Amino acid sequence: MDKLLITGGATLNGEVRISGAKNAALPILAAALLTKEPVTISNLPHLNDITTMISLLGSMGVSVVLNEDMSVEICTETITELEAPYELVKTMRASIVVLGPLLAHFGKARVSLPGGCAIGSRPVDLHIKGMEALGAKVEVEGGYINASVDGRLKGASIFFDKVTVLGTENVMMAAVLAEGKTVLENAAKEPEVVDLANCLIAMGAKIQGVGTDTITIEGVEALHGCHHPVIPDRIEAGTYLVAGAVAGGKVRIKEAIPEHLEAVVTKLKEAGGIVTQGDDWIEIDMNGQTLKAVDIRTAPYPAFPTDMQAQFTLLNAVARGTGTVEETVFENRFMHINELERMGAKAKIKGNTVVIEGQETLKGAPVMATDLRASASLVLAGLVAEGETLVDRIYHLDRGYECIEEKMAMLGATIRRVTN
Ligand SMILES: CC(=O)N[C@H]1[C@@H](OP(=O)(O)OP(=O)(O)OC[C@H]2O[C@@H](n3ccc(=O)[nH]c3=O)[C@H](O)[C@@H]2O)O[C@H](CO)[C@@H](O)[C@@H]1O
Ligand SMILES: C=C(OP(=O)(O)O)C(=O)O
Predict the structure, then answer these.
(1) C-alpha span between 93 and 82 (Å, rounded)
(2) Is 125 in the pocket of ligand 1 (CB under 6 A)?
(3) Are the beta carbons of 35 and 225 closer than 8 angstroms?
(4) d(CA 358, CA 346)
(5) Distance from chain centroid for Cα 323
(6) Is 165 in the pocket of ligand 1 (CB under 6 A)?
(7) DSSP H or E segment with residue 218
(8) Catalytically active residues, by annotation
């Protein structure tokens, strides 16, 4: 199993290109199931999750062709199976997002329940209720969601009890082919939802209000092919900015969308970073600045993202002062704390809040990655710790960070992949 070996202490300097967003690319790949015509998707990141989604489409008999420019062309003309099997869904819960497109286009879907994961129970009840509201018959049996509809789905008014990103995306994709009007209230406003909607609109869908909490969809009979470039990954961007903050120096992220990172940049400035930005870049300069602990409260966009919580927890662990981090989105997203404590971090967890007392230094240690962003926080810890840190189980990182060791090394980090 691959590990990352990091020798701490190097100051980071330079530029890093941000890859396409995993969480936008995954539903957009699924959106190709909504039409018979070819859909071409570019700026896809090279990540294990993307490979899993492509394998899932392939397992259905969908044709997926890699073009010379590295874009991917997907065509459903050859589809034979309307199923997402457990073997694939268990490795990536975002596979659930094929439910809406399969049901809306083919009238039937069988999708394995994703189950819980290292960050909490993560139910999909709101996805299922949304499909039922659109007129689907849904049964959960033997760990599978079996959904079907006679004829077309029917537009409906749907209020999400909780803001759900994949839930909004799944139901929005089902509604674009439904008969009549659908109104989604308390919908997710994340940039990835907006990117998916823009792809659907390019395919001929009629959607209004994306980026607000009320999305209105006027169903159409059929969608057509399109070419869609995926937006840059705001979480990857934020992670490299935190790397610059904790390791000192000057780090510029390029080919990003600064508007998507406002909550993160606000906290980086509060932490003492000198942050400047242009149309598609953000730079953090820590030369001579003292890193200060900050208070964080995660919540749906545009508030501070839960996917940046672990990285800021680490920032607090090496900053001056005491910072409080409150996690309101997932019930169990503090798995990185124990590992950071093994490196000398001082933290107290109480319910969904952790209070971190900043330390002058952390000490390198062998640590275990438990989920994607927890892993990112351990890599960041390794960059600042004294001595060597060996991060085990980095398959989590490979789900979400393209070429992380190459990108970090280009900024000056001493980091390499160890295979055994
Ligand atoms: C592939 C992808 O895009 N993943 C992102 C997506 O996950 P995902 O879409 O799975 O997360 P949700 O927004 O759905 O989860 C938000 C909250 O709603 C709850 N919930 C969700 C659905 C449901 O049917 N019932 C229910 O109770 C969840 O348990 C959680 O407490 O948004 C999360 C929140 O920004 C991010 O951390 C993930 O990186
Ligand atoms: C939690 C995440 O992803 P997923 O929803 O795919 O588990 C993430 O990207 O941080």
Answers:
(1) 17
(2) yes
(3) yes
(4) 7
(5) 25
(6) yes
(7) strand 214-218
(8) 117
Q: Which of 372, 373, 398 most suits a substitution to test ligand 2, by most atoms within 8 Å of the C-beta?
A: 372
> In whole angstroms, how large is the CA radius of gyration of the chain?
21
Is the minimum distance from the CB of 372 to ligand 2 under 6 angstroms? Answer: yes
Q: How far is the CA of 372 from the centre of ligand 2 (A)?
A: 7
How distant, in Å, are the alpha carbons of 47, 199, 288, 404 from that of 285? 29, 36, 9, 21
Residues annotated within the binding site for UDP-N-acetyl-alpha-D-glucosamine are 93, 122-126, 307, 329
Judge contact between 260 and 394, C-beta under 8 A: no
From first to last of the 420 residues of the chain, give the pLDDT tens digit: 899 999 999 999 999 999 999 999 999 999 999 999 999 999 999 999 999 999 999 999 999 999 988 899 999 999 999 999 999 999 999 999 999 999 999 999 999 998 767 888 889 999 999 999 999 999 999 999 999 999 999 999 999 999 999 999 999 999 999 999 999 999 999 999 999 999 999 999 999 999 999 999 999 999 999 999 999 999 999 999 999 999 999 999 999 999 999 999 999 999 999 999 999 999 999 988 899 999 999 999 999 999 999 999 999 999 999 999 999 999 889 999 999 999 999 999 999 999 999 999 999 999 998 999 999 999 999 999 999 999 999 999 999 999 999 999 999 999 999 997
pTM of the full predicted structure? 0.98
Query: What are the angstrom distances between the C-alpha of 91 and each of 14, 56, 85, 404?
Result: 34, 11, 11, 20
Q: How far is 264 from 16, CA to CA, in rounded Å?
A: 17
> How far is ligand 2, taken at its centre, from the CA of residue 181, in Å?
31
Which parts of 271-367 fold into alpha helices (H)? 309-317, 335-342
CA of 124 to the centre of ligand 1 (A): 9
- Kindly state the helix (H) or strand (E) to which residue 105 belongs, with its residue range: helix 99-106
Residue 96: phi and psi, rounded to 5, are -55, -20
> Which domains does the chain carry?
2-16+233-419 (3.65.10.10), 24-229 (3.65.10.10)
